[in-house]
Each structure stands twice: as structure tokens, then as C-alpha cells.
Design goal:
Number of domains: 1
Largest sheet: 2 strands, antiparallel
Order of helices and strands: HHHHHEHHHHEHHHHH
Strand order of the largest sheet: 1-2
Distance between the termini: 12 Å
Number of strands: 2
Number of helices: 14
Helix content: 55-70%
Oligomer: single chain
Structural class: mainly alpha
Length: about 325
């Protein structure tokens, strides 16, 4: 699913440049206000979801691969990861190395794919509704500072995340295919079930919320930088208190989104800031331990040794494809 195509920001901007009627222009500005802010909120949530789930699934797969490398007689299938994934152990004993089956590889992708398809569609619906309920009551002429924006975004988040059973974010990151919990599993179902159990874990839900917090914090930093370009604060006014009409902040929102969509380095820095959260490191280390049957000390050394590439760089490419025109 493509985030950019789910919102009408560009088409509204094109209409604004081609009409002269003041009433129609104002209506379009009101709609642009909702679409721009909703798109940025969607980006903040979805990037946090995809990063967190990818780190979790990579750790689980790493643990499984390590376990298989230590118990080659139990694993007879060779998977498609052979050309890209090698563990440090396998490099010295390649003749005994066995990889995960294609079924399990597909299960790995299914866990993440849900968040980029069905989960994202659900998220966009909820975000657009919540954004409209908050920003529709704010005049285009109203002066706002960064703290005002933080407060309004917090209100949007509250509306999105409230009234959910068990966890407010499960709707957007959890597969629904195994809700009946079958008594028997094939390899793919078993891996999906185990991953879903980790996703439903209360500790992971707390971690996920912290990653979402970091994602929004990155966006607020961008707003502060954009607002500082309008004019320097006076001696009696700090940068956080510098007020700007909402009509001027709307293009800033569009610019911030475009900066992430069009610049790989900016997107990479965003994902790196999310991946560096210590809470996520601790949870994924424990996930690796669970799947590898190794000690915490071993997990901390080798959780990602099977993957020679950085997940943030791959997520950058994935997300830019989701944000392409």
C-alpha cells in the first residue's frame, strides 16, 4: 500500500494553483490541512511499526538460524536466504549449515506485510478521522507554536489509541489469521503464531509505544527547524514559543513529509534514531535468546550476526517505495 497515494495533498495543491474563487480556495485549504497532517501522523506511526516488527522478526529468524546451525541433523531444507544471509558459525562450517524453509521465510514476510497493507489501511482510516476531529476546529489564521502542535498531535494519538482491547496498537500490527489458535501447525503457521505471541506480549507493547514516541519526537524536531526559518524569536520569546499562523504551518508539514519521502539519508537517520532505543535492543535480544535457546550473554553478541546488512537501510528503501508518487 502506498502512503502518498492514500492522501490527496498533491492533487489539492494543483487545484489551489489553478483556481481563483476565494470560497473554493478556502475549502481546499481546509481539506489540505487535514490531509497533510494526517499523512505525517500516518508516517510517524507506520515507520515505528515497521521498524519495530522488522527488528523483532529479524531477531527471531536469527535465533532460529543459529539453532539450526548448532543442530544440523534436525533441519533438512535449504531456503532462499542462502545468497544473502550467513552466520559467523556457518562461515566456518558451511557444509553443515542448514537454512530455514521457504514456508518460514514467507511467514516472516507475512508478519511485516500485514503492517504495510491491511494494518496500514486501518491506520489511515483512523488517523484521517482523528485528525479531522482535532484540526477542523482550528482556524487557518490561528497562531501556533511547537508546543501547540505537540499538544494537538497528542490529542490525535489519544483518539487513535483509546478504547482498544488489551493494547491500542494491536489493530495495526497483528495478523488476524491465527486468532482461533489451531491445535496443529505447519512450519509457517508455527512461526507466525510464535511471532504473534511476542507481538501481544505486554513488554513489546510498551516498547512499541516508546518507538512511536520517538518517531513523533523526530517530527516535532523537524517542525521546530522549519518554524525557526520563518523568523528568529525575540528576546522575550523562546523558539518553542514562536507562534506562526496555521496556514503557514500546513506547507511545513508537507515539506517535512517530502523531505523523508525524497531523501534517503533523512529516512535512514529517522530509522536509526528509532533502532537505537535501548528498550528495543533489550526486547529483541530476548527474542533471539528464545528462538536460539542461548544465554542472554550469547544473544547480546550474535543476535544480528546472521545479517550482514543494516535493517535501517533496507527499511529506508521499503518506506521510500511506499511513499513514492
Amino acid at each position: 500500500m502506498n502512503i502518498n497515494r492514500s492522501f490527496q495533498c498533491e492533487s489539492i495543491l494543483q487545484k489551489l494553483s489553478s483556481i481563483s474563487d476565494s470560497t473554493e480556495k478556502r475549502q481546499l485549504w481546509e481539506e489540505l490541512k487535514i490531509e497533510c497532517f494526517a499523512r505525517l501522523v500516518t508516517f510517524s506511526y507506520s515507520s515505528a511499526f515497521v521498524l519495530s516488527l522488522t527488528e523483532l522478526v529479524v531477531s527471531a529468524l536469527s535465533g532460529k538460524l543459529y539453532y539450526q546451525s548448532q543442530h544440523p541433523s534436525e533441519n533438512q531444507s535449504i531456503g532462499a536466504f542462502a545468497t544473502t544471509i550467513k552466520s559467523s558459525h556457518a562461515e566456518s562450517t558451511q557444509e553443515n549449515f542448514r537454512l530455514l524453509s521457504r514456508d518460514v521465510q514467507m511467514a516472516c514476510l507475512d508478519v511485516i506485510r500485514f503492517t504495510t497493507e491491511t494494518g496500514l489501511a486501518n491506520l489511515i482510516d483512523d488517523v484521517r478521522q482523528a485528525t479531522r476531529s482535532i484540526f477542523s476546529r482550528i482556524s487557518l489564521q490561528e497562531n501556533l507554536d511547537v508546543n501547540d502542535l505537540i499538544w494537538y498531535f497528542s490529542e490525535i494519538r489519544h483518539r487513535i489509541e483509546k478504547n482498544r482491547s488489551s493494547s491500542p496498537l494491536l489493530k495495526f500490527v497483528r495478523l488476524n489469521s491465527l486468532t482461533r489458535r489451531p491445535t496443529t501447525f505447519n512450519l509457517q503457521q508455527q512461526f507466525e503464531f510464535e511471532c504473534i505471541e511476542m507481538i501481544e506480549n505486554e513488554n513489546f507493547q510498551r516498547v512499541l509505544k516508546q518507538i512511536v514516541d520517538q518517531s513523533f519526537s523526530n517530527i516535532f524536531d523537524e517542525f521546530a527547524r522549519e518554524m525557526s526559518k520563518i523568523g528568529r524569536p525575540t528576546d522575550s520569546t523562546s523558539l518553542d514559543e514562536q507562534q506562526i499562523p496555521l496556514a503557514k504551518i500546513i506547507p511545513m508539514s508537507n515539506n517535512i513529509y517530502s523531505k523523508y519521502a525524497n531523501h534517503q539519508q533523512q529516512m535512514t537517520l529517522h530509522f536509526q534514531s528509532l533502532a537505537c532505543r535501548p528498550e528495543l535492543h533489550e526486547f529483541t535480544k530476548n527474542a533471539y535468546e528464545l528462538f536460539s535457546n542461548e544465554s542472554v550473554e550469547s544473544a547480546s553478541r550474535t543476535a544480528f550476526s546472521l545479517f550482514p546488512f543494516g535493517s535501517s537501510m533496507n527499511l529506508t528503501s521499503l518506506f521510500q517505495s511506499m511513499m513514492s508518487p
